[in-house]
Every structure is written in C-alpha cells, then in structure tokens.
C-alpha cells in the first residue's frame, strides 16, 4: 500500500531523484527518462479515455495500470538482487504482453488490410490513440537505450513494442473499423 502524507519533500531540489532501490541519480538519468516517459504516456492514455467507451475504455484502464507496473519495474535497477530485496520489486510479466497480443488479434480480425500509411486523425479518439502510439514508441526507444547500458526486465521493451501496435490497431477500430482512416497520399501537395 502506498501512503503519501506529504507531496513535496525538497529532496529533488538539487536535480536528483531517488530510484526504487533508494539510489539517488540525476533527474535526467536515462532510467528516469524511460520511466518518466511511461508516466507521460499514461497521462495521454487518460486523455484518450475521455473519448473511449465500453471495452475500449476498459482496455485503456488496464493499460494505465500496466504502465504503472512498467514504471515501477523500470525505476528499480539491479534485477539480479531481486531475491535479496526486503520487498520483492514489481516486475512486468509476460502475461501482460500476451494479453495485448490477444487484444490486438481480436481488434484486427475485422479490419481491412492497409494499402497506404495512415495519417493520425479521424475521430477524436483515434487522434488521441495515435499520440499514445508515438509516445509509446519514444518510451520503447528509451527503454532499449537503457537496456544497452544497464540490465532491465526484457518484458518492459516487449510490452512497449506491443503497446504501440495496440494503439495503432485501436485507432483504426475507432475510425469506424478503418473506414474513416485518413490515408497518406504520397506527393499529394507537390
């Protein structure tokens, strides 16, 4: 259970923050950038939910919770010491990636194959989901960069990769099953 009695602590006033294991790092540390971008993505998902209904809203709610799991995972370095930790760190699980894949398959089943790239837009929900897709890709790039430098849970990269695909397919579904997708016309304005 998380208990926040005081919101400001002044411990970050000199440009540092604490990781999940208590280590202090610069606020621009790559690990902080990675989990901070997943938090930014979570905010954009919250905005998308303003337009979502039914199962799409429920799926976005699950994704928001997963993104907090992902942030908790990324903020805790030293996976090899997990067994020795006083409190077992929360790690993203392969089942969360598998769920996204199942949901993508269900959403994609009734969509026509693409014959062009899609421009972000269409319905308000689709536009918001495209923003989520691009922020998820940025979070993924940061997580991959972090993985090159430090050990991280491989499920975090897989999840972010699948999540951007999920947002893409969900945007198509929100555009009247792809019928109202805004298609790119190469060289249209030459």
Low-confidence regions: none
Q: Structural class given helices, strands, pairing?
A: mainly alpha
Largest sheet: 2 strands, antiparallel
The percentage of residues in β strands lies in 5-15%
Helix content: 40-55%
Kindly report the CATH topology: Hypothetical Protein Ta1238, Chain: A
CATH superfamily: Cobalamin adenosyltransferase-like
CATH class: Mainly Alpha
Number of domains: 1
Q: Give the beta-strand count.
A: 4
Radius of gyration, in Å, reads 19 Å
Order of the strands making up the biggest sheet: 1-2
Shape: elongated
User: What distance lies between the first and last C-alpha atoms, to the nearest angstrom?
Assistant: 58 Å
Subcellular location: Cytoplasm
Main location: cytoplasm
EC number: 2.5.1.17
Keywords: ATP-binding, Cobalamin biosynthesis, Cytoplasm, Nucleotide-binding, Transferase
Describe the structure in brief.
The chain has five helices and four strands. The protein has 190 residues and is mostly helical.
Describe this structure in words.
It is a single chain. This protein is mainly alpha-helical. It has one domain: Cobalamin adenosyltransferase-like (Hypothetical Protein Ta1238, Chain: A), CATH 1.20.1200. The chain is 54% helix and 5% strand. The protein is built from five helices and four strands. The strands form two sheets. Strands 1-2 form a two-stranded antiparallel ribbon. Helix 1 runs antiparallel to helix 2 (54-74), helix 3 (94-108) runs parallel beside helix 5 and helix 4 (124-149) packs antiparallel against helix 5 (154-174). It is found in: Cytoplasm. Keywords: ATP-binding, Cobalamin biosynthesis, Cytoplasm, Nucleotide-binding, Transferase.
